Amino acid sequence: MEISGLVITFNEETWIGGCIEDMFRVCDEVIVIDSYSKDRTVEIAKEKGAKVIQQEFLGDGPQRIHGLQFCKNNWILNLDADERLEEDSYQFIKSGKFFEDLYDGYRFRRNTYFRDELINFSGWYPDYACRFFDKRTAKPETTIVHQDVKGKNILKSKMHLRHYSWNSFNQIISKKNQYTDWQVQEYVEKGKKASSFAPLIHGWVSFFKCYIFKKGMFHGLDGFTFALIQAFFSYMKYAKLIKENKK
């Protein structure tokens, strides 16, 4: 298919095997950029036929950019370890129609799962992510968290990815806490400031948007809970920034 699979990993033994298998359905090679995992991630990746390159973590965007040089093909399927192609995206890539399109990248809608439950409310859907692009004209941004892909003509498609995001609330809290630390680091490096009211304002706006406009209110306790999670970490991001600025 002349497609390279690219995935960055750190301690992803639970997910990496399935991810590589999924990629090989449409890719003729899979490259894993691993940040010196402590578990069986590297062993499993090699068993599944992937080429593994180890690199200290540079940040989300820079780590993906680093991996591009090891990909022999121009078209890149850049999934996260806990992502899979849904049938509509698989059929599209398998068809090879993208070779004839005018687009150099495709954003997919992510179906996010908490345990086995689809969370398609409170701002957790469609959660667009660009995971398929032509590296000649498109590539990941250099942001260290929640990077996007920039290109000449990227399509916001209706195709889907399956995202096995969280298995427990502890995992959500842990990952969100790490993400906000990275975002604050990026803000500080850019000289971003925040007023003392910023945490409260951003927290309330996030909750209102997720609970009201993104239909959390129609999903009972789960709708309230996941809207509150979004709001809390929006609050914490700016609270952390204020503390860092005071240093």
UniProtKB/TrEMBL annotation:
Residue ranges of the TM segments: 216-236
GO molecular function: transferase activity
Domain Glycosyltransferase 2-like: 6-89
Annotated keywords: Membrane, Transferase, Transmembrane, Transmembrane helix
Pfam families found in the cross-reference section: Glycos_transf_2 (PF00535)
The keyword tRNA-binding appears for this protein: no
Gene3D superfamilies: Spore Coat Polysaccharide Biosynthesis Protein SpsA, Chain A
Family statement drawn from the similarity comment of this UniProt entry: Belongs to the glycosyltransferase 2 family. WaaE/KdtX subfamily.
Protein name: Glycosyl transferase
Organism, as annotated: Galbibacter orientalis DSM 19592
